[in-house]
Amino acid sequence: MADTRIARTQIHKEPQPLLSRSRPKFYVTALLSSRNISHIREVHAQVVVNGMLQNLTVANKLLYMYAQRRVLGDAYALFGGMGERDSVTWSVMVGGFVNVGDFTNGFATFRELIRSGVTPDIYTLPFVIRVCRDMKDLKMGRLVHDIVLKHGLLADNFACAALVDMYAKCKVVDDARQLFDKMQNRDLVTWTVMIGAFAECRNADESLVLFDWMIEEGVVPDKVAMVTIVNACAKLGAMHRARLVHYYICRNKFSLDVILGTAMIDMYAKCGCIDSAREIFDRMQVKNVITWSAMIAAYGYHGHGRKAFDIFHLMLNSGVSPNVITFVSLLYACSHSGLIEEGLRIFSLMWDEFAVRADIKHYTCMVDLLGRAGRLDEALELVESMAVEKDERLWGALLGACRIHGNIDLAEKAVNSLLELQPENAGHYVLLSNIYARAGRWKDVAKMRDLMSQRRLKKVPGLTWIEVDNKTYQFSTGDRTHPRSEKIYAMLESLGKKLELAGYVPDTNFVLHDVDEEVKLGMLYSHSEKLAIAFGLIATANGIPIRITKNLRVCGDCHTFTKFVSAITQRVIIVRDVNRFHHFREGTCSCGDYW
DNA sequence: TTAGGGTTAG
């Protein structure tokens, strides 16, 4: 055996002429049939021996083969020695660097191209735009857009789709849309990129509108387009659309591969339908770490911590290793289900047993977990002992815990840290004001309000959406714009009386202003989620769950209010807020009253 | 001879 290996090596060292020595086509054919890098090198040697490196077609193909196999050292050596280069040469070299993630050299090669006076072509530009996209370098992206315009390449779908994608990933969706609207012949990828752009920029309802428009235009979606629209439904939490998209997927016989299946698990979970998410999960033949993590996260949103752990153990038994996100999802599930000891245990096992190092996101989950349980000292100790740089989410978790437990001193500390990081965020001032208000410290409340007006900051209004008969309605706090407004307020008034008889005590501490109790009550009864629930009771039949989505965290009083509503009306109410789902049924909430 | 879009958390 050993002798045979030596003999083969010797053969490779002595290149033999291949095929016809003078015809480029034969070298290209030989390269195309190359199975490994040593064969490419062998053909390279033959090309040199037979003086064919001067042929640009052959040299470019060689360069492409090295770049495709990600052997950038050989590719760059060849590129450096090429006396003649054309646009293909440049494009392959730029693309070679970009595809291995070497953006610095990719961009440097592109600059060299511009300096050498070569006109960049439609093949090179998408690579360069991708660099701008992945580096989130909007300034550079706009410069490349100018180059596209300067060379009249706007008609090219590849360059345009790449630009739309770049704008979307840089979070300037209006620029993406403007360019999309200018395009004459949009192909499927362009549509998909634009649909994804809206979902990316939290404008998922626009994604759905665009998807319908795409179908009307006769563009047939493929699996990637379906994953994109599934993702948009997940972001929107639109259950009715989710069902329609699922129906479309079945009718058009898209197979449930690992990516589409995982996206659908996430979609159903975020639309509040955990059972459908689990059904998809059970039907999937192939599951990867993302699938398992998505299912763990799904149970986490819904407050089913134990089930999240069941999935985690099944995952380990199936031989899949957890990653950073699996643990974020698991810790998140613990903090939203009150599984304190389990959370502490898994946090300590992460590194020891699974070699996953805790980062800021895991620490934030732990602060949330300990903080909600009232173990604020331990939460603070963890914050002070951690070696990872602290961010606003971490302090936000600590502040949230202070609000629940009325710890003013610690809240002030958290807010000071938050204001250092985000001085313009009005939400931090409002949270601290609420904490002061709850303690009756009205002078401090006034101070916070003055500070906000001095700094010209305004709180983001609380908004709630409700889907009734396939139509979405939006409510803001104190809203009277709805055509059935009078009925809604009348319903709230009569409901309030019944709820108070049943034992509900409105918690006016959740009203910020230092005003009369009666006024406070009025303000409390006009919170956006209460208006949406009242509308839901009027507009939907018994047996149909009321599903609402809030753009901020559900306030503590609304949480109690909803529990009472579900008890006296026997209606199931599902509330999705920024952090999780709350399933209210017969006076209880799936978050285990762990508020 | 060279080019594009998709899954989990925060």
Automatic annotation (TrEMBL):
Gene3D superfamilies: Tetratricopeptide repeat domain. Keywords: Repeat. PPR repeats lie at residues 86-120, 156-186, 187-221, 257-287, 288-322, 359-393. Residues 503-595 form the DYW domain. InterPro entries: DYW_dom (IPR032867), E_motif (IPR046848), PPR_At4g14850-like_plant (IPR046960), PPR_rpt (IPR002885), TPR-like_helical_dom_sf (IPR011990). GO terms for biological process: chloroplast RNA processing; RNA modification. PROSITE patterns: PPR. One of its GO terms (molecular function) is RNA binding. Transmembrane segments: none annotated. Belongs to the PPR family. PCMP-H subfamily. This is PREDICTED: pentatricopeptide. It comes from Prunus dulcis (Almond).
